[in-house]
Design brief:
The chain is α/β, with parallel strands linked by helices. 38% of the residues lie in helices and 22% in strands. The protein folds into 3 domains: 86 residues, Elongation Factor Tu (Ef-tu), domain 3 (Beta Barrel), CATH 2.40.30.10; 103 residues, NADPH-cytochrome p450 Reductase, Chain A, domain 3 (Up-down Bundle); 143 residues, Nucleotide-binding domain of ferredoxin-NADP reductase (FNR) module (Rossmann fold), CATH 3.40.50. Bound molecules: flavin-adenine dinucleotide (FAD) and NADP nicotinamide-adenine-dinucleotide phosphate (NAP). The site of flavin-adenine dinucleotide has 24 residues, from strand 6, strand 7, strand 8 and helix 9.
Length: 377
């Protein structure tokens, strides 16, 4: 069910890197005027995307249905045109088992029918998962469908189009009724095609068609907050889009007059192209508000990542932790966050002269006392 949203205007939308087409980051500023959204640094903003109209038109063409046909949304009983339903309510990048079953029941071609029967048979193990991971709805229909589908039944097979979250890269104490976001265009290969992430493509390419208006809501993050005591040092580890909340943290720490030491460990591909918010960061360094280190992963013949910087400065990381620093990690959950945690455990073990078990307990205690906080995705 859709969370209650506020219509908001994107007032600034700026591309930050120009060397690649497959991994573009954008700085967005969204006006919160007329909304009651009051966020804190560390929180996120939920955005409901709209699907690519070209994809929608292609699906309508394959099905050969009048786009204005009225359908009922299964979850809410709401009546909508088929076109609007495809644009705004369902995930067109995943083929559910129900969709594969419906096509299997309706397909005429005996070879495709048998193929789909195998795919749906649990005895054949991973075959359905392969469909899930290599097809979007349009290319699945093109490959397998040769007959009309009952449209309401087709509509009932979809996954809901869920909101995506973006970390607040600002504080209201500095930017007022506005939130800044750092959005990475998600490009990936699945099956035979290069694809673009639903929401990041919507933000990057489709906003103009909606007069820069987006549907947003506030997602508080009680697990990812600056220390209440402004004299507490902080270490922020955020490669890629993981940088976003730390821009908000830094704005807030600058706003707090008596705030303590700040250390940002950032990582991205190339210093020349991917040093986002460079002037802002270098200005903080110049004014001795920030200690800054970066891992430029592709500027030399071997990879350098944020966890390598942590290891290089392990003694200093430990010293800051001993001074009571809170350590924050934001960004990729699947690999980066695990490797950063491993490096942190090594630092605790080595400099704290602890066994592996004691180091793990130490990190657990840090987590429970909010001195180790993560917002990873
Ligand atoms: C709390 C939180 C904060 C976040 N903050 C930020 C932020 O500040 N900036 C930011 O850029 N992002 C942030 N994210 C991530 C963001 O919410 C989105 O997940 C991201 O933008 C991708 O969404 P999308 O709709 O563009 O891609 P989606 O369409 O959701 O695709 C995402 C991934 O799913 C996989 N996928 C989808 N369909 C298929 C398929 N058929 N076959 C194979 N693989 C498939 C691909 O790997 C693809 O890369 C945050 C996430 C969370 C939870
Ligand atoms: N599931 C995955 O495999 C995967 C991987 C990356 C990103 N993502 C997702 O892609 C989205 C955007 O990512 P992003 O643009 O924020 O940044 P990103 O793709 O994570 O890249 C940022 C920096 O992190 C480096 N990096 C790669 N692997 C790392 C590791 N194991 N440990 C530490 N650093 C590592 C990258 O180096 P190199 O690129 O030079 O290796 C790059 O310099 C996020 O939603 C993220 O979750 C998923």
């Amino acid at each position: 069910m859709k969370v209650e949203c506020k219509p908001s205007k994107v007032v600034t939308f700026e591309r930050l890197n120009f060397n690649e087409t497959n991994r573009i980051l954008y700085h967005m500023e969204v006006s919160l005027e007329g909304t009651d959204i009051r966020y804190e640094p560390g929180d996120s903003i939920g955005i409901y995307p709209v699907n690519d109209p070209v994809q929608v038109a292609m699906i309508i063409e394959v099905l050969d249905v009048d786009p204005q046909t009225e359908i009922t949304v299964k979850q809410s009983e709401e009546k909508l045109s088929f076109e609007k339903f495809l644009l705004s309510r369902v995930n067109l990048s995943r083929c559910t088992r129900e969709l594969v079953t419906l096509v299997q029941q309706n397909v005429k071609d005996p070879i495709n029918k048998e193929k789909l029967t195998h795919i749906l048979d649990p005895e054949y193990g991973l075959l359905y998962e392969e469909i899930y991971d290599s097809y979007h709805v349009w290319d699945f229909l093109v490959e397998f469908l040769d007959k009309d589908l009952p449209i309401q039944e087709f509509c009932d097979t979809f996954l809901e189009l869920l909101p995506r979250y973006y970390s607040c890269a600002s504080t209201m104490n500095v930017v007022g009724d506005q939130v800044d976001l750092l959005v990475g265009l998600d490009v990936y290969i699945s099956g035979k095609y290069q694809r673009k992430g639903i929401c990041s493509y919507y933000l990057a390419e489709l906003l103009k068609a909606y007069e820069d208006e987006i549907d947003i809501f506030h997602l508080p993050a009680p697990h990812f907050k600056l220390p209440e005591d402004t004299s507490t040092p902080i270490i922020m580890i955020g490669p890629g889009t993981g940088l976003a909340p730390f821009r908000g943290f830094l704005q807030e720490r600058q706003y707090q007059e008596e705030s303590s030491k700040n250390w940002l460990i950032f990582g991205d591909r190339h210093e020349e192209h991917n040093f986002y918010y460079k002037d802002y960061i270098l200005n903080l360094v110049e004014n001795e508000i920030l200690k800054f280190d970066a891992a430029w992963s592709r500027d030399q013949d071997h990879k350098v990542y944020v966890q390598d910087i942590m290891r290089n400065y392990s003694e200093e990381v430990w010293k800051w932790l001993e001074e009571g620093a809170h350590l924050y990690v934001c960004g990729d959950a699947e690999r980066m966050a695990k490797h950063v945690k491993k490096a942190l455990l090594e630092i605790i073990q080595t400099h704290g002269k602890m066994s592996s078990k004691d180091a793990k307990n130490h990190l657990k205690a840090m987590r429970l006392s909010k001195r180790f906080q993560q917002d990873v995705y």
